[in-house]
Amino acid sequence: MAWTVASDIADRIKNLREFLGGDTRKAILQETLARRAGVRTSQVSQWERGAQSPSKSRLERWAEREGWPVEIFQDGGPMPTEVLAASGSGGARGPEARGGTDGASNDANEILARFYEVMAEAIRCGRPLPPELAVLIQRMHGLALGEGDPVAPPAKDEGGAAPSAATESEFPGW
After folding, report:
1. How far is CA 42 from the centre of its chain?
2. Mean of pLDDT values over 109-124
């Protein structure tokens, strides 16, 4: 079916970013949306300013990857919030976007991206760094060592003993 990119795509991208912010009523960062779309942050900025429009093929791939109906990007189609909120197919919002209801993801790129997102938000708002950063560092450390999820209970080896893994005691104050 032939379709055209919405003439108000800048508003739709902003609308989508706000929707993905979840119940916090805060839009996710442009860099977070860029990562999900598979583009640079500057690209999202250009889209939102209306300086450039994403291609149909980029939007189709993005919608397919996220499980969204491509109609949210089409001319005359509904706004993302109308469709995604009603269908519950927001591709996960808030913590769920990072792998499960507890925010735990075993994807190194997602963990690292979340780490920088949390740190940047704290710095931008002048808040102290939140404890979530410690958990993210532990997850990155465990993945780097090939241990999977270091926060999850360790798997037992053939002899029934748990392999050594990063524990809270190895990270003072965490």
Report:
1. 17
2. 73
